[in-house]
């Protein structure tokens, strides 16, 4: 049962439930970019992110990666395990684009083999700065072993999702993960995995099938999110 609003973020609302260790995530019909500086109402976006995220969490569970996901409740909401979010954004990159190209002057589409893992400090007021492992240990309550586990899990998730998206003729370019500590003290995958938090490129044409179409005004967000969902449903 949905109780009071615990937190309203840019992409989701988080509600308490009658179970102390469960939350409801309600995906909003709103898109933001550049740390909230660009914003738009997009009716139907919440549904796509909810369905795509639920699909991917279920797929990961079938491949022995557990997450906070418990079940999909309706078109825009899912029930999840409550965690204390670790304030890190864990980014995995297979191909160079976005901030890494700006930061390091790399050529667009440089292939990372093995994939890169980067850590950002999740703090909007600081614009989520990139940090190293020692900074992460300083800024969180993680042990070194837990940080290694998080980075290893992020790479395993990449190994599981890359072939899935390949089957859907989609290149998994990069993505962002968040982890949280549950009531038992264990670190689990949390938040969302969706076209808001991943870069998906069509394998044949490199057409952008993710939030970059909104960031750069290069296409219709609902059309490309629908395309990702259709392709995932088709390979089920
Ligand atoms: P933001 O806070 O960046 O604007 P969202 O709009 O996606 O992001 O808000 C959802 C919030 O819920 C995020 O702060 C995210 O870290 C948090 N969250 C996601 N999963 C869980 C979970 N299982 N337990 C507690 N908090 C969570
Ligand atoms: N990302 C995210 N939330 C953030 C920052 C990045 O979900 O606050 C995702 C983004 O969608 C992309 C990946 O992480 O899939 C790498 O993003 P990048 O660092 O290139 O940042 P950007 O160019 O989006 O600013």
Overview of the structural elements:
This protein is of the alpha+beta class and 236 residues long. Helix content is 31%, strand content 34%. It has six helices and 14 strands. The protein has helices at 45-62, 99-104, 133-139, 144-167, 212-215, 221-234; strands at 2-8, 12-17, 22-27, 30-33, 38-41, 69-72, 77-81, 84-85, 88-95, 111-121, 130-131, 170-181, 187-190, 198-202. The strands form three sheets. Strands 8, 9, 10, 11, 12, 13 and 14 form a seven-stranded antiparallel sheet that branches. Strands 1-2-3-7-6 form a five-stranded antiparallel sheet. Strand 4 and strand 5 (38-41) form a beta hairpin. Helix 1 (45-62) runs parallel beside helix 6. The longest helix has 24 residues, at 144-167. The radius of gyration is 17 Å and the shape is globular. 35% of the residues are buried. The mean pLDDT is 98. Adenosine-5'-diphosphate (ADP) is lined by residues 7, 9-12, 14, 23, 68, 80-83, 85, 178, 180, 190-191.
SSE diagram, text form:
Elements: E1 2-8, E2 12-17, E3 22-27, E4 30-33, E5 38-41, H1 45-62, E6 69-72, E7 77-81, E8 84-85, E9 88-95, H2 99-104, E10 111-121, E11 130-131, H3 133-139, H4 144-167, E12 170-181, E13 187-190, E14 198-202, H5 212-215, H6 221-234
Antiparallel strand pairs: 1-2, 2-3, 3-7, 4-5, 6-7, 8-12, 9-10, 9-12, 10-11, 12-13, 12-14
The chain binds adenosine-5'-diphosphate and uridine-5'-diphosphate.
């Amino acid at each position: 049962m949905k109780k009071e609003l615990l937190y309203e973020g840019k992409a989701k609302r988080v509600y308490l439930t009658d179970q102390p260790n469960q939350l409801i995530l309600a995906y909003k019909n709103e898109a933001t970019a550049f740390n909230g500086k660009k914003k738009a109402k997009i009716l139907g976006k919440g549904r796509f992110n909810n369905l795509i995220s639920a699909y991917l969490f279920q797929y990961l569970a079938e491949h022995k990666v557990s997450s906070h996901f418990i079940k999909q409740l309706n078109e825009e909401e899912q029930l999840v395990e409550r965690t204390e979010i670790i304030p890190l954004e864990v980014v995995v990159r297979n191909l160079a684009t976005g901030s890494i190209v700006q930061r390091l002057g790399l050529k667009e589409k440089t292939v990372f083999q093995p994939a890169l893992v980067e850590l950002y400090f999740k703090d909007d007021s600081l614009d989520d700065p990139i940090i190293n492992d020692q900074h992460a240990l300083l800024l969180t309550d993680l042990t070194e072993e837990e940080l290694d586990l998080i980075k290893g899990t992020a790479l395993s998730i990449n190994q599981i999702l890359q072939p899935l998206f390949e089957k859907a003729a989609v290149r998994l370019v990069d993505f962002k993960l968040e982890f949280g500590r549950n009531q038992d003290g264990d670190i689990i995958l949390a938040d969302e995995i969706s076209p808001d938090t991943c870069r998906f490129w069509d394998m044949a044409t490199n057409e952008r099938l993710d939030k970059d179409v909104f960031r750069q005004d290069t296409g219709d967000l609902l059309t490309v999110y629908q395309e990702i969902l259709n392709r995932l449903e088709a390979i089920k």
